[in-house]
Amino acid sequence: QVQVVESGGGLVQAGGSLRLSCAASGTIFSINDMGWYRQAPGKQRELVAAISSSGSTNIADSVKGRFTISRDNTKNTVSLQMNSLKPEDTAVYYCNAHIKVARTPTGWGQYWGQGTQVTVSS
Questions:
Q1: Phi and psi for 56 in degrees, rounded to 5?
Q2: What is the spatial distance between Cα 18 and Cα 85, in angstroms, rounded to a whole number?
Q3: Strand order in the sheet with 2-7
Q4: According to the model, what pLDDT value does residue 73 have?
Q5: Nearest CA-CA partner of 28 in 94, 76, 72
Q6: Secondary structure (DSSP) of 40-53
Q7: What is the pLDDT of residues 57-86, one digit of tens each?
Q8: 48, exposed or middle or buried, with CB in 10 Å at 0-12, 13-18, 19+?
């Protein structure tokens, strides 16, 4: 069994900062990409930032320059540092990880956390 658990959401004023953390645990042989997605009310889930096992990052244009993604491969964790937050950043943020859970070529799966609410007040 694999679990992906987020933490760190909350309420912050515009211009403030928050740091989200995510940890994967369980029977894990390796992790490929890890990332953060968000979903605002009435909108589709969208990619915020992703990072490969080698550290290459993909950051959404809407948060570029404000958000930074990082990971610790030794701890199976990924973090999202969010600065200069705007009201439009308000959403439920989900952690995603592409995890090898079995010693077979097809033993990979996409795993999601339960989501953490980020609310930015104006």
A1: -70, 140
A2: 8
A3: 2-7, 18-26, 77-82, 67-72
A4: 97
A5: 76
A6: -TTS--EEEEEE-T
A7: 999 999 999 999 999 999 999 999 999 999
A8: buried
